[in-house]
TrEMBL record:
The chain crosses the membrane at residues 172-197, 209-232, 238-257, 277-303, 309-335, 382-406, 537-557, 569-590, 602-621, 669-687, 699-724. It is found in: Cell membrane. The keyword Membrane applies. GO terms for cellular component: plasma membrane. It comes from Microbacterium hydrocarbonoxydans. It is a multi-pass membrane protein. This is Membrane protein YdfJ.
Length: 934
């Protein structure tokens, strides 16, 4: 991957205009799609397979008058007045008729004075409610209809006596459409300041912001275009915006910081851009993949709107990764070498004077900045580790108080009319009136539907937690009945969820007594079911995320302890972030300062989103910090062959490991610090004026990033690595063999740089000390010139087959140097496969056609395995095809005996092939013996 990214970075650097214009075209296409196809967001929450959803679907079929969304207008009489007296009664009844005639979407507008309705006038006769029922869900009601309802409510308030109150609310107005405010721009400004300090260049500092904003534009436009085909909630675009900005800035930062350091060291800008994308870009791609997997893993909950949210956010992250590895080097191509920034001029120190006649005292050479920090952390690693773990454990205590619920009008800003209506209803009628429950079932077999529903209503009224049964009636065709229940507690109160479970526990009893298969449903029940299902999904999702981190980091670092410490650090970060959210939204700490509209339950999908997003970002910092430590440890000579004369091998290795922790930390701390500050600034900017649903998510991400970056990754992890010492990099041999190789540190790019001048000639095949242990090949040396040929013989058939596949780029060698068709293996295997044809000539009948296919496009090399297994006629066909092939195409043939291959090459007009005996690792010319050396 690193070599592919390195080539991509070089090409983008050379063709900046092509890359920039391409992304602008993509932005234009996505924007046009959003304008033409966009249908708007939809805050209708559903959860297939649950009782509440099944109940809604049943009502939609048989009792549509109560299945759609609803609204209500509460009227509170002036002090001393009764709501049942004129002029209240007349004005309210007239208004009910006007509301019913707004348009066809209004199915009914029920007057509180209707003789068939109970409970719409409170016990004190000081307030009344007009209930509106609509066809379809809230998203089906047009903005014009909402405006007309608001105007009628205002007219009613104007007609009523002085001192009365009128407020419009209900399910239709329970959710707000979130938007972007100027506060979010403050986060970008802080990010820009951090970038300026990091890069010490105004021009370079603006590039990560530019790439992030362009990426967000593409992803946001794509999300709105997708509303034509999928249901997208209003929170989804803002979550994608928040994530896209944060990771977009950070990913570009990682690549540009590596590029700037290399250019300052004197590396050519083009070569530096290529290396930066191949090394830091590899870590970016890995980090992006972890975020993608975690976000897509939100589908664990089995809730459609949450799955859509995860996919949309993952699209934003994928676009950010794609822009980081393409547009970032392209913009660096515009700047060329103007990326070093201004030089920091050290302020001269004033030496302290000693006593008279004495020279000034020499200044102390104490480590500063990141070096001083990591030195302090690793000096007392056990104490530091305990302090961090205990401290974060204390911070996590409020997480035990977290209650989850879907948002309702009660969490809207206090100046919102829907919030005012919610509060008035709760004050005048009780909190449960804002979240009625519905019991529904089929009563088609009943001979007395009215009496049946009345008896059922009486039974329901006896349940603890039921304040009253507002309605108990069959539908017009007497095949479905409903019981509308007003709980004693608010919709988001845990006691209401307990009431739903209690009602469902009577299912069998009421089925036996009344013969009705009852389901508990309604807007409140749907929210409770969603919260319960999300709560149940947290454990399997957590196991998935932590298990994934263990597997990925084991593959990356070839270590067991590094993944374990990374996973434990992630757990500490996530529970501490939950604790901070609980302290603010449940306990009310700093709630006013953060403009929290209402202290209470938080949005139910906050925990699973926070777990998914923070996982990817935490692994990002882990990889960037620890990979540098691993690189320094591997390159330290004491880590491999310590000198026993200066101390025990264990002590020397431990010292090398400690040096690697300190040097690796110092080399990457600046960028990780900047990345953490930028992400924190972007996330926290969505808290003060953000949407009520997004606010706890933004606060959790901001707190989680700050904790993970600065307390876990930059404090706890170095301390644990110092405790582990050389054991941090140990892994069982059997596990090492089965793990795939993932180059996220750009080792292949560095290897290519060091071997750029090898072998020093134009050989199509160059191999030195080539080893394939399982095939029994050790220290193989060979060269094949352009248009030249070689015959590989000796050894077993399987050995020759493996060697042929290695030369064709289909199998990676264990070790040694191998360059084929100008590309270094195994890093450039994809390129080699594109320039090398291979024929496994052990199956009779298809060899000629296979060779024709292998020679298509004039490859630099063609490898033919098993020539001696062919008949004379087939070898003649091979010779004919090779005779017609391009003269520059090199040929390598294998066989148990060299004679058949030599005959084919002679018939094809190929001169003087090298014969290489694999079993003796020697090569002979066709007419004289000479060892082929490097």
């Amino acid at each position: 991957m690193s070599t592919l990214l390195s080539t991509l970075g070089r090409w983008s650097f050379r063709h900046p205009w092509r890359v920039l214009v391409s992304w602008l075209i993509i932005l234009g296409i996505a924007g046009a799609g959003a304008v033409v196809l966009g249908q708007g967001t939809d805050n209708t929450f559903s959860i297939p397979g649950t009782e509440s959803q099944a109940g809604l679907e049943q009502l939609n079929r048989s009792f549509p008058a109560v299945s759609g969304t609803s609204a209500q207008i509460i009227v509170v009489a002036a002090d001393g007045d009764s709501i049942t007296d004129d002029p209240y009664r007349k004005d309210i009844e007239d208004a009910a008729l006007q509301f019913a005639d707004v348009d066809d979407s209004v199915l009914s507008a029920t007057s509180p004075y209707d003789e068939h309705v109970n409970g719409m006038i409170n016990d004190d006769k000081t307030a009344a409610i007009i209930r509106l029922q609509f066809e379809g869900q809230a998203s089906d009601v047009s903005a014009e209809t909402k405006d007309a309802l608001t105007d009628l409510a205002d007219e009613l308030g104007a007609e009523l006596p002085q001192g009365s109150q009128t407020s419009l609310g209900g399910e239709l107005f329970a959710t707000s459409i979130p938007g972007v405010t100027l506060t979010e721009a403050v986060g970008l400004l802080i990010a820009l300041l951090v970038l300026i300090v990091t890069f010490r260049s105004f021009a370079v500092a603006g590039l990560p912001l530019l790439t992030a904003i362009l990426g967000v534009g593409v992803s946001m436009a794509g999300i709105f275009a997708a509303t034509a085909f999928a249901t997208v909630s209003s929170t989804t675009p803002l979550l994608a915006l928040m994530l896209g900005l944060a990771v977009g800035i950070d990913y570009a930062l990682f690549i540009m910081a590596r590029h700037q350091d290399q250019v300052r060291e004197g590396v050519d800008p083009e070569e530096s851009a290529s290396r930066a994308v191949g090394t830091a870009g590899s870590a970016v791609v890995f980090a992006g993949i972890t975020v993608l997997i975690a976000l897509i893993g939100l589908g664990f909950a089995g809730i459609p709107f949450l799955t859509t949210m995860g996919i949309a956010a993952s699209v934003a992250v994928a676009v950010a990764v794609a822009i980081a590895v393409t547009l970032t080097p392209a913009l660096l191509g515009f700047l060329k070498g103007r990326v070093t920034g201004w030089k920091r001029t050290p302020r001269p120190r004033r030496a302290k004077k000693g006593q008279e006649g004495e020279p000034p005292a020499a200044p102390l050479n104490r480590p500063k900045g990141s070096e001083g920090w990591v030195a302090g952390v690793t000096k007392r690693p056990i104490l530091v580790s305990l302090a961090v773990v205990i401290g974060l454990g204390v911070v996590a205590v409020p997480a035990l108080s977290l209650n989850l619920a879907l948002p309702n009008a009660g969490v809207l800003p206090k100046d919102s009319q829907a919030r005012q209506s919610y509060d008035l209803v709760g004050e005048q009628f009780g909190p449960g009136f804002n979240g009625p429950l519905i019991l529904t079932g089929t009563i088609v077999t009943s001979t007395d539907p009215l009496g049946l529903m009345e008896d059922l209503g009486d039974a329901v009224a006896e349940i603890d937690g039921v304040k009253e049964v507002a309605l108990s009636t069959p539908n017009e065709t007497a095949d479905t009945g409903i019981v509308q229940i007003v709980p004693e507690t608010a919709p988001d109160d845990p006691a209401t969820a307990d009431l739903v479970r209690e009602l469902r526990s009577h299912h069998d009893e009421w089925l036996k007594k009344f013969g009705i298969d009852l389901k508990v449903t309604g807007f409140t029940a749907v929210g409770i079911d969603i919260s319960d299902q999300l709560g149940n999904a947290l454990l399997p999702f957590g196991i998935f995320v932590i298990g994934l981190s263990l597997i990925l980091l084991t593959i990356v670092f070839r270590s067991l302890w590094v993944p374990i410490t990374a996973a434990l650090g992630y757990l500490l970060s996530i529970i501490a972030a939950f604790g901070i959210v609980g302290a603010v939204f449940e306990w009310g700490w700093f709630a006013d300062a953060l403009h929290v509209a209402k202290v209470g339950p938080i949005i139910s999908f906050m925990p699973i989103i926070l777990m998914g997003v923070l996982f990817g970002l935490a692994m990002d910092y882990q990889v960037f910090l620890v990979s540098r430590m691993r690189e320094d440890y591997v390159h330290d000579k004491d880590s491999k062959s310590p000198d026993a004369s200066t101390g025990s091998a264990t002590q020397i290795k431990r010292a090398a490991a400690l040096r690697a922790v300190r040097s690796g930390f110092a080399g990457s701390a600046k960028v990780v610090t900047a990345a953490g500050l930028i992400m924190f600034a972007v996330f926290v900017a969505f808290v003060p004026e953000g949407d009520s649903s997004l606010k706890p998510i933004a606060l959790g991400l901001a707190a989680g990033i700050a904790i993970d970056a600065f307390l876990v990754r930059m404090t706890l992890i170095p301390a644990l690595m110092a405790i582990l010492g050389e054991r941090a990099w140990q892994i069982p041999r059997w596990l090492e063999k089965i793990l795939p190789s993932v180059d996220i540190e750009g080792e292949a790019v560095e290897r290519e740089r060091h071997l750029a001048d090898w072998p020093g000639d134009d050989s199509v095949v160059a191999a030195d000390d080539l080893v394939m242990a399982d095939a029994g090949i050790e220290a193989l040396h060979m060269r094949v010139a352009p248009g030249g040929s070689a015959v590989l013989t000796g050894g077993a058939a399987g050995t020759r087959r493996v060697l042929a596949l290695v030369l064709a780029g289909r199998v990676a060698p264990d070790s040694g140097l191998l360059r084929v068709a100008g590309h270094l293996l195994p890093g450039r295997a994809a390129w080699v496969r594109a320039h090398v044809g291979v024929v496994l000539a052990t199956q009779a009948g298809a060899t000629a056609s296979d060779l024709s296919e292998a020679l298509r496009g004039c490859p630099a090399l063609v490898v033919i395995d098993g020539v001696d297994a062919l008949s004379s006629a087939q070898r003649d066909q091979l010779a004919a095809r090779l005779r017609d092939a391009d003269a520059a195409t090199a040929v390598v043939l294998t066989g148990a005996s060299s004679a058949p291959a030599l005959d084919v090459l002679a018939s094809a007009g190929r001169s003087a092939p090298d014969v290489i005996d694999i079993s003796t690792r020697s090569a002979q010319h066709s007419d004289e013996s000479s060892e082929v050396t490097a």
